[in-house]
Amino acid sequence: MKDITPTEQVISEYGKLFISAMEQCSVSMVVTDKRGVITYANQKFLKETGYSMEELLDKTPSILKTEFTPPEVYTDLWSTILKGREWKGEFVNKRKDGGLFWERATISPIRDEAGVISGFLGVKEDITEVKSISSRLDFTKINLQRANRALRARHAVNHELIDAISESLFLDRMCQIMVDIGGYKLAWIGARMNDEEKRVLPVAQAGFEEDYLTNINITWADEPTGRGPTGTAIRSLSPQITRDTTTDSRFAPWKEEAIKRGFASSGAFPIMVEDVVWGALMVYSSERDAFDQEEIDLLSGLAKDAGFGIGVIRERDARRRMEEERRRIDDKMRQAQKMESMGLLASGVAHDFNNLLSSIMVNLDLARMELPKESEAVNRINDAMKASQRSAEICRHMLTYTGQSSGVFKMTDINELIREMAQLLQVSFSKKIMIELDLDPQSPQAKMDAVGVSQVVMNLITNAAEAMGEDGGKITVRSREIQNHNDVSQSYFETIDTERGPWVLIEVMDNGPGLDEETTRKMFDPFFSTKPKGRGLGLAVVLGIIRAHNGSVAVKSARGDGATISVMLPTGGASKTLGGATRIETSVYTRATTAGSGAILIIEDEEHLRTACRLALDMCGYKVHTASNGKEGLATLYENSDEIDLVILDLSMPVMDGRETLTHLKKLKKQVAVILTSGYDKSMDKQIPQSESVACFLAKPFSSEQLIGAVNRVMKGESRR
After folding, report:
1. How many alpha carbons fall within 13 Å on the CB side of residue 271?
2. Using CA atoms, how far apart are residues 210 and 367, in angstroms rounded to an integer?
């Protein structure tokens, strides 16, 4: 046992008396080491601050610090006591519960036996009650400022909702308001994810962050990363306040990152959208215990407003999408009605024009037959015939646009077709234009009219080349098989058949100047062209061919961004028949010189054409009867049934149309041969029963050579079945 000298015993007794005196003192007293770390505090200090001795150990008096004491006060304090002098002054401090109080302090250095400063003694007195009324009003003002910043932030957020154009922008602005108006150091919003990890995903943030959200991992799962303020707020649906990020055990996983950035306290507030927890709003302060109850209530209300705002924006977006979809459907219906009207107009014009052209061409042939070959008039007739044939070609384009042109449908390798057309066109283009192929290695096939689809590819590539002009560029032609229209991106869609695929896709892309929206919507209209000398039938023909295939065409383009035209053809094709009839193509027959024999009945409502056909067949030796409609024609056949061997029947007539007439013709004389004529091409498919037998189909306009050739062939039995 150590001996204690009388002097040491006296000192020990005085120490006990000193400690006892400090404990009974009516003023607060605190002792720190030379670093400012608290080593002792009396009961008065503990009572006034609300902290226990265990909570104060290893802490500094700055735990009481507030933003309401000017920084220069603390600077002056340390400058004075480190020089060994006594400092006197006043602070606005805060208790553990966040309450603010005034205190007057005297801080003196403590020296050891050698006179070296070993610590400091602070003697403090609560002067809140003795401060003037104005001082107490200052406290009220300070507390109001805290609540007011949250109130102003809430008001600004609600105002922002009125003009919000999207959910993400609204949340971004909300965070920025919390920092700019609320005065918080960091504000961020996390969305609750329903994935396996139950993550909280930051979707908006503002303020001093420095990768804080990147370096932390927050979940709402019931585990360490989810038991912090954010995860707990989401699970419990109640606000979670961290008064001191350095001491709150729930904040432990993020403590170091928070200290680095000066986040001393925080609040987490759940966000509900339509009674379902959506996520949370988090705010951080550089001051400890920065949230009193009034402010917490206001921030909780702000989070509630945020949830309401998200719901409003989503409902507004849903309504806007519905309106856009409704407008899209209305536009599509109007476009379909326009296309149908234009198709009816085009087919009607083509039909009437084909009748007139047939009359012109037959009469021109008759006139040419009556003139000597060396006559100058023959040359003029030949020129007129060429013009008529050119007009007939325009009519065919118009019928193709309406989808009333049919061809031979068979399984075709689309890649091979594209290669042939690209090779053919590349030779004719400028060297500044390059055609690049990106073809499906599986070589997709479809049942199609190869001639028609070749024209589609040619027209699209040619249009792309013309769009790029003299500067040239690259045209990419792509092929692949797709399952539905959703696999194709477009800004304009002309859908002919909405049934699901599979489809063969042909895309022609160019890096030219692109098309504006108005041009995109009109580009398939007949006679619309952006070229000064263009006839505007190229893309109209493309659309007609696609119509005939029950396909679709889509366009994606913008000014300065090139253009992509996508063509979708059903792999099963759209096979067409002609009631078993043989088709007589243009220029198949040369002039008929052999004399014919037999009687023919012409049923045609167009008088000039009926007369011209009668004259042409009369010249060949045939006996010709004529009728202006089906009813008259049946009467003529009934009266001359024994001698009439052939009926030339127009499909479109008043009184009785071609289909009905054909049915009655076969009843009157089953073995009579029939040649069908029409200014429509596809109309045979709809108007002729498959059970009826016809010898051949002669499309208008036709020349006398074609007429006589078809008649000779049928009368010789070459087309009879």
Report:
1. 23
2. 94
Out of 8-17, 329-338, 365-374, 675-684, give the one with best mean pLDDT. Answer: 365-374
- What residues have CB less than 8 Å from 94, skipping those under 6 apart? 64, 65, 66, 100, 101, 288, 289
**Residue closest to 271 by CA, chosen among 235, 306, 241:** 306
Q: Please give the Cα distance from 526 to 398 (Å, whole number).
A: 8
Does residue 520 sit in helix, strand or coil? helix
Backbone φ and ψ for 309, nearest 5 degrees, come out as -60, -45
pTM exceeding the 0.70 threshold for the entire prediction: no
AA letter at 23: E
CA angle 41–46–47, rounded 5-degree value? 145
Among residues 125, 114, 112, the alpha carbon closest in space to that of 33 is found at 112
CA neighbor of 605 nearest in space, from 546, 560, 658: 658
Which position has the token pair 């074609």? 706
Residue type, 339: M
Q: Report, in this order, helix, strand and coil percent for the chain, each rounded to 5.
A: 45, 20, 30
Instruction: Choose among 590, 645, 597, 649: nearest CA to 620.
Output: 597
Count other Cβ atoms within 10 Å, centred on residue 645.
Answer: 18
Please give the Cα distance from 183 to 143 (Å, whole number). Answer: 14
Q: In whole angstroms, what is the distance from residue 196 CA to residue 619 CA?
A: 91
Please check whether residue 92 is in contact with residue 136, taking contact to mean a CB–CB distance below 8 angstroms.
Answer: no
Residue 133: pLDDT over 50? no
Two structure tokens written together for 571: 């792999």
Both tokens assigned to 369: 């037959």
Nearest to 701, CA basis, from 392, 457, 263: 392
Q: How far apart are CA 368 and CA 612, in angstroms?
A: 13
Dihedral sign computed on CA atoms, order 107, 108, 110, 116: positive
**Whether the Cβ atoms of residue 107 and residue 30 lie closer than 8 Å to each other:** no
Asked if 119 and 34 count as a contact pair (C-beta separation under 8 A), the reply is yes
Burial grade of 717 (CB within 10 A; 0-12, 13-18, 19 or more) = exposed
**Nearest-angstrom CA–CA distance, 546 and 401:** 9
Tokens of 522: 């009109």
Is 62 exposed, middle or buried (CB count within 10 Å of its CB: 0-12, 13-18, 19+)?
exposed
Encode pLDDT of 52-104 as tens digits. Answer: 999 998 899 988 988 788 888 898 999 999 999 999 999 888 888 888 888 89
Q: What is the pLDDT of residue 691?
A: 43
State pLDDT tens for residues 222-266. 988 899 999 999 999 999 999 999 989 889 899 999 998 999 999
pLDDT in the model for residue 626: 94
Give me the residue label for tokens 């002009």.
Answer: 469
Please say whether the dihedral angle defined by the alpha carbons of residues 227, 229, 233 and 239, taken in this order, is positive or negative: positive
Which DSSP string corresponds to 471-516?
A: G-EEEEEEEEEESSGGGS--SEEEES--S---EEEEEEEE-SS---
Q: Which amino acid is at 57?
A: L
Q: Is 347 helix (H, G, I), strand (E, B) or coil?
A: helix
Is residue 329 over pLDDT 80? Answer: no
Which tokens is 715 given?
Answer: 């009368």
Q: Look up residue 479 and give its two tokens.
A: 């092929």
Which of 579-583, 639-643, 649-653, 701-705 is the least confident region?
579-583
Burial class (CB in 10 A: 0-12, 13-18, 19+), 362: buried
Q: Which long-range contacts (CB under 8 A, 24 or more apart) does 105-109 make?
A: 107/77, 107/81, 108/81, 109/81, 109/84, 109/85
Positions of E strands within 130-199: 186-192
**Which residue(s) pair with 120 in the sheet?**
32, 109
* Beta-bridge partner residues of 508: 477, 565
- Beta-carbon neighbour count of residue 363 at 10 Å? 20
| Radius of gyration for the alpha carbons in the chain, expressed in angstroms and rounded | 48
CA 64 vs. chain centroid, Å, equals 55
